Every structure is written in C-alpha cells, then in structure tokens.
Amino acid sequence: MTYRFINSQLFSLFCLALSFNLPEFCPTPQWDSEPIIFANKTSLGTYPGTLFVNANNTVYAFATRQKRILLWTEGASNPTRQISLPDSKEGASMFVASNGDIYFDYRKPDGRVDRWISQNETLETVTIFESACFGLFIDAKDNLYCSMAWKHQVIKRQLNDNNMTSIVLAGTGKEGSNENELDGPKGIFVNMNFDLYVADCFNNRIQLFLSGKTIGVTLAGIGSSDVSVALYFPVGVTLDSMGQVFIADMNHKRIILLKRYGYQCVVGCSGIDSESNLLLGMEIFNFDSFGNIFVINPKTAQILKYLFINNSCGISFNIPKVCSLALWNSNGILFADQKLLGSQPQVLFADSNNKIYAFNESNKEIVLWSQSSILPILRTILVNSSRITSMFVTNNGDIYFDDYYDKKQITRWISNEGTFDSIVNINGSCSGIFIDTNETLFCSISKYHYVLKTWLNSYKKTLAIAAGREIAGSASNELNSPYGIFIDFKFDLYVADCGNDRIQRFQTDQLIGTTIVGKSSSYDGISLRCPSGIVVGNDGQFFIVDQGNHRITAFSVHRSLRCLVGCHGQGTQSNQLSNPFTLSFDQFGNMLVTDSNNNRIQKYNLYKASCGGPSGNPAYTFSISGNSPTFNPDCYKIHRFYEAIQMNVIITGFYVISWISESFFASLIYKDHFDSMDPFQNEIEDESDDNRTAVYKRIIELRANTIYILVMTGLLYTATISSCSVFIEGPSNISLTKFRNNPCRDERLTNAFGTSSSERVRSPFVLTWEAWDCQSDESETESETESEMETDGETGSEDDSGNSDVEDDENTPSVYTYNYTSNTWQKGNFGPTLFPRL
C-alpha cells in the first residue's frame, strides 16, 4: 500500500484555510536548473535562518545574526520591511499564519516559541517546548507542531488551549530507527487528513504517521519498500495540491519528487559541483503560488529561486531526468529488426505515454509499440509514403511526418479520425521535425542548409527561416546539412549541424548561432563527426547522436564529452552501432536508437543506481562490529572497520556499485592487491565526488580478467553491529567473495612487524589487521610468521590482557592488534585504548 497520493478535491478544500502555497503540478513538472539569486549576504548577513513564502507570495527570511526578520512583498527585489527581534541564534524555524502572525523558534535548548502579532506589531511568548523546534507547522485547526531534533520527537499543542497540553505524535524521546522512533527529525508537514510527514534526518528517511497513529510508514529512504530512493540527511518535506511529496535531500544537494515507483529529481540533479553546491547546507524550501521553488542556504547566505517551467507539462516526449554521471548498459537489446523496419531505418519517436513509433519503408506503414514492449505490435498505420525521414507525435496522438518524396509536404495523421491532411508544402525533405509547446513546427532541410518554421495555429501556414541561409557554410549564421533538431523550454533551437561536425544553438528568434560542442566550440579537443540527432536534458546535458563516429555521447560544460553507447567502434555486435541516426528516450530513461546500417532499433537500459539508490537483489551482504579488522585509510584519521571483497569481472565495461547500510560506509577499490598496511597502494580513482566519504555509489570501469578488491569501510569506530548490502549493475554479473589477505603469501608484509611498519602508520590509534592461516604446503612461512607474532610466552597462551587464543577455524581469519609500546603484534582486537601510542 502507498500513502504518497491523496484525494486532490479534498486537498483543495483544505488548502482554502492555509497560509502557504500548494501548487497543482502535472506528474512530470520541470524547473530551470539555473536558479535566480533572490537574496544574498548583503541583506541576509551571515548564516541566515529559515524561510517562509505565504499565499500572497510574500517571502519571509530570518536574518539571524542581524536579529531581524526580513520581508519581500511579491515582485520586490529588496526587503520591503524589517522586524527587529530581541534575541537570535543560528538557525530558527518559522511559520506564518494566514492572519500574518509570525511564529518562530530561536533554536535554543529552552524551546521557546514566540509570536510576532501583525495587528499590533508586538512580540509575545506562545509556549515553551522541552527542546528547540527544528520544524514548525500550524494546521487548519490551529494545532502547533514542533519537531524536536535533539529529543527525537514531534509533538503538538493546541494554540487555543490555555494549558497548552502536549501530545506526542511521533518518536519515543530516544533516538532509534524502529517504526515508532525518530533520529533528529527536521522538516515536518501536515496534510488535510492531519497525517504527519517527517524528514527523519539521521535515519535518512521520510516517515508518514497517519492521524492518531504513532507507528510510522517509511515513504522513502532506508527501510522503504522502494530501495531506488536513497536519501542522505533529508531536512525538508512538503506536498503539492495533488499530494505529491517533495523532499529536500540535503547531503545529496538536491530536491526530489517522489513517484509511485522511484523518484524524479527536481533541482540539483546534474551532480555538477557548481550547481549542486548551491544546495549544500540547505535548510528548507517553499513554493510560491506560481510553483517556483525558494530555497534558503545558511552556508552560502543565499535565497535561491528556481523557476517553474510553465510549458513543461505540455510536452509529448520524454526528457531524460538523469544526473551527469548517468550510465546505460552498453550492451543493447534488439528492439526491432529488418523484418519490422525494412532497410536503413531513420525514423523513431517515443512519446510520454511510452508508445514507440517507427516507419517500415518496405510496407509503407508506421509501426507502433506500447509500453516499450518489443512484442506484440500495438498497431500499424498505412501511410502509402515511399520514404519518411522524420516524425513527431503530439499529446493528442496526431503524427506529423515528412512526406516530401511523394507529396512535397508535411503530412499529419489525425488520430481520432484516422485520416490524413496536409500541413504545409516544403521544397526539400525534413531531416528533422519538432513541434514546440507554442504550436510552432520546425523542419530542418539538409538539402538547403536551413531550418524552417511555421505556426500550426495560423490559418495560412507560411514558412520562415529559423536558422541557416540556404547556402552551406560554417559561419555563426550558417549551417551545412542540418539533421536532428530540438527546442528547449526557453524556446531555443538546437541543431545537429552534420556537415560542420557541431551542435548549434539559436536563441529564440535569433539567426546568429552559438556552437555548443564540436568544431569551433570553446571546448577544444572534443570532436564530433556528422552528428544527426540532439536531445537536451533539463539539467544542461546534451545527448548527441554522433553518427560518423557510430556512437551516442553526452556533453555538459562541466563533465565534457562522455561516450555512452557504441564506444567500441563500428560493428554489428550488441555494444556497437553503424551509422545511428535518431535517439529517443522512453519514460524510464532508457535510450532507443535507430541503428541504420544494421537495420535495427537498439534499446539501452539505464542503470538506475547510477543516479539513485540500488535496485534488485544485493550481490553481497556483510556486517561489521567491534571485532572486525581495522585500518587507517587516511593515515591521520581514526582507524576504520572494514570488509574486503574480491570482485570477479567477466566482461569489461562501466559498473555501478551502490550500497544500503545501517550506518555510513565509504568505499575504496584496489587493483590486483589490497594491503591494509599501505592503503594508498593500488587504489583506483574514479569520478565519484569523494571516494573516502560516505557516498552511496561508485561508477567505475572494470576490466575482465583483472582482480579488484572492494573495501567497504565504516567511517567511525563503533562497538555495535552494522550491516551493509552491496549492489552491482553493469554489462554482466560480478561474483563477490570475501577477500583473503594472506600475509604468508605477500613478501611485502614480512616487514609489517618491524619498525618500518609502525612508522608508516601515523595514526595514534591501534591498528588491527586480518590475517588468514597459511596452507600446509607453506609451513615454513607459517612458522616464521607465527614466531614474529608471538608475545610473552608460547603461541596460544594467555596474554597480558587476559585474552586467550582459541583454535581458528580454517575458514576464519585471525585478527591481530599492533602494540606500539612493545612494537609487536598480538592476536585479537583490543580496541583503541588498550595500547595507546606514546
């Protein structure tokens, strides 16, 4: 059962009494990825507190260090009012009632909540909670809610009750991760049914407590049935008028929208530092009545405004909503072959309902599949056209296609009538067709080196030049054999300028273009060869059909050019392409490509874990505890517990390694060998933000027939047991086995028991090391090693700590602890205080 979606009619009735905005969004809303800086340190000062946007679009912000609340009325670029406060501290939470009264908390241990009364402009203390409120909320019945992060509870009090009786809604008062517990709750939201949504920050989840229930349901994060939504310190949660849940995922530096299956990233989606760092440290976000998102970030002392793209809900195709490191399976699935498509197919379109359209030239028919299923074909539409080179499908199911070779026109098939009509006459074949949300149709005519446009709502459909000037050229106002085209939400035109080996952008109604990538661009060394298709993501990524290089690439100004599929040269194998022409995305982010010379359409599945949490069954599960081995990956930090896992790779390619854990784990990957005494040796770097911090995934190229060791390490010393599950997505399955670091078979470790070893390990904490018993055929080495590890007395005798050695199982490692006082190793893990280094 899911609780994410609620009755919109009931919700809209509830919203009439609310002081804040709950816009109505379509299922796939979009926001501009580049925010407007609404306010900065000049007005906010350093470390501003919280934010609130009321139903009149007045913005309230807590200028903490300046001890005042700032107000911006709608349309104002500077504060229009300042309310002085007698006291202030970092943080503070705030809620503005419908009558203009401002409720706020100073985030002090005494839990005092004050109210600024708008009618007489005075301050009064409303109530005092047991602890500071990190989230405040007032429902339609004048109940005041307080999330006490330090007390791990959410409680409410009735504002009209003189006694202000506290009612515990969620949490037990002690940190925990059970269904009735919370750990550091931050943002809260109450819906029309008085159900409580909690950003359970340190449990990395969103909890829903139905009205009157103290047992929570996990909507997203750790413990959710949907493991694809991984959260990292969520601090805010709110709903729209349709009951869709939006989450401020602070340490992932993004805001996401929960879906019935998975999620949609809203802002901070690319993973690009210059964008996502704007959201690092965000405290809270609000909507205005237009659907724009306001975010306050105390660390950067900014209020950011992300503009809602009004026309984003009217598109008929799928825009990839993926991060900058998104990864697809490079081994394509055959979606359609020559029997269904004829020879050298070019036409392909995937609509927002996951219907796939292609053209069979041999049968002169449009072929339609439903829900990305290869079989059965949903229907065929006989068009009696000998050749179609481009196609576009609108929201109502009408199909616009190039019909130049038979009728010298663009033809429309009207879906609700099953008839055809002529749209406009053309003087050359359209290599690309696109219709924007203003009902403007664009056609790229490669023969005449320009892009034409016409207005579908106009009675007389005249053609005008949108780009190029009828002769081939490479100047900024010229094109050379343009193919695929794309119009973004700003109505900028993007052209795959094949003959010039570049992608051109023409801003709205401008005839002078800018080279995005390719020849003459500002990114030297990035080469394209006759690009034939272009799709623009809403986060600044460009997906390019690099036809002459027989591949699909992704480009962004921060990540440069990445090869996605077809990266192994021209060919007929599942990981190869030959003259690809058109690219389209289905609803799930999977790529569909017309592989023209191979007479097929290939489908490349998105690895979901590359941008979100893991999916499927774990490949390896383990637990660490106070008895686990430790090492010092940074030399100067506290030692960490770890699990070393050997990865056996069959097929070379990029793999996504992700994990779910009860506590924070980092990962390190080593090639050929892992030496816990020398953690920098053989370590492999990749494009992860920081391999030595608590990221939840790695994207890395692994080669077949090579030994790799994945080292999962807990960030902090803990005596409690913590489990972790590892997931892997890639071109093939990878078997994971426990790595056996056998010192008897590594000459480098023969010096590990002398002075040189202790000098290399510069941490003042005890080092523990996992060693495996030697095989009988290496008895001499075994004897030498055991001799060096003996302390006072014979092997197996009781040591100074009172611990006695026991006979080891042949499949169980022995754990040794280094005694810095005597410069010797002792069998057993004695913790970080028994033998402190002097």
TrEMBL record:
Residues 812-827 have a biased composition (Polar residues). Keywords: Membrane, Repeat, Signal, Transmembrane, Transmembrane helix. NHL repeats lie at residues 528-558. CDD domains: NHL. GO terms for molecular function: zinc ion binding. The chain crosses the membrane at residues 649-670, 707-728. Residues 775-811 have a biased composition (Acidic residues). It comes from the Eukaryota. InterPro entries: 6-blade_b-propeller_TolB-like, NHL_repeat, TRIM-NHL_E3_ligases. Residues 774-838 are annotated as: Disordered. Residues 1-19 form the signal peptide. This is NHL repeat containing protein-like protein.
